[in-house]
Design brief:
The structure is a single chain. 45% of the residues lie in helices and 18% in strands. The chain is an alpha/beta fold and 368 residues long. It folds into 2 domains: 190 residues, Glycogen Phosphorylase B (Rossmann fold); 171 residues, Rossmann fold (3-Layer(aba) Sandwich). The protein has a 7-stranded parallel beta sheet with strand order 3-2-1-4-5-6-7, sandwiched between helices. Strands 10-9-8-11-12-13 form a 6-stranded parallel beta sheet, with helices on both faces. Helix 3 crosses helix 4. It starts with a strand and ends with a helix. GO terms for molecular function: glycosyltransferase activity.
Length: 368
Amino acid sequence: MRILQVITSLEMGGAETLLVNMIPRLQALGHEVDLCVFNGNETPLMQRLKEQCPQTNLFVLGTGYYNPLYIFKLMRMMRDYDLVHTHNSSPQLFVALASLWHKPLLCTTEHNTSNRKRNWRWYRPIERWMYHRYQHIICISDIAAQKLREYMGKGWNSPASSLYQRISTINNGIDVEAIHAAEPCQELVKTKEQRCALLMVAAFRKQKDQDTLVRALALLPKTAYEVWFAGSGERLEEVRKLSETLGIASYVRFLGIRTDIPQVLQAADIIVMSSHWEGLSLSNVEGMSVGKPFIASDVNGLHEVTKDWGLLFPHEDAKQLAALLQQLTTDDAYYKQIAQRCYERAKQFDINEMVRAYNQVYLTLCKA
């Protein structure tokens, strides 16, 4: 089957990492898989895809995300494929519009439980029309599927409806054993000295809540802990200024975009994901894979994966987060217990199972 994957960019992020990990595995199953990106800025993920999958055609539409001229480029491109699979909001809409002229099989993945456009009442009819253009919608968690059905309303909520059947859940997957077996980044190990390193891997955007981790650090003994942030984005300077205001800037390290995330995870002592909402965070599962304790905000997406395995703290509650961090670092048996539970949970999200499920969706759509 000829499949075209369409995404906004290959900046470092969960959906982008998932796609780069998935393409070679789908090709190994016999599919011809190409990739179209709206913003073609060179990134470590793009470089990795080129090196690992030189046979993959990479189409770059431009340098922006919402250029309506992309629709015409997509119209021509989509004629050569049996199935087009979109990721993120603008590709979802632009491919739906392009399909008015030529409609291959359309599939999309919802990578979050919510987005800001769902608060725009005027936009709801557009999204309802858009989703009707897709033969299948994959959600990365049950809560993401539930929230989408609630948002779409009548017809999509009834199990007896054909619209209800268009939505399914396929949990995100990662290469758990490769992350678990990674060697720690020695540069980071040396520089943290005797301090406990708290790591958060996430882009600096409105969805993420690095601020609460910074505030929690300010409540902890100053010389016993440090925070590492791996990622980039528009809110990075805002978070940096917060650390300066709280007088803890020397204990907050901004690592930038890293291509060695497994090694960085292994160098840390505790993994934290503080967020306002998630779909099913790849960083969540990656963080649980290394055999270290994982602590997350008790919000949709993170709650599903972490509850009863890792530790949860109330949304934006820096005081409770600080208390959990202190408990882990003062009770070695508790630290090891939570770390082992996190690893056992991560093993339930193997990427090969995820790819098999995606492949089954593709084959079912073709047969229909």
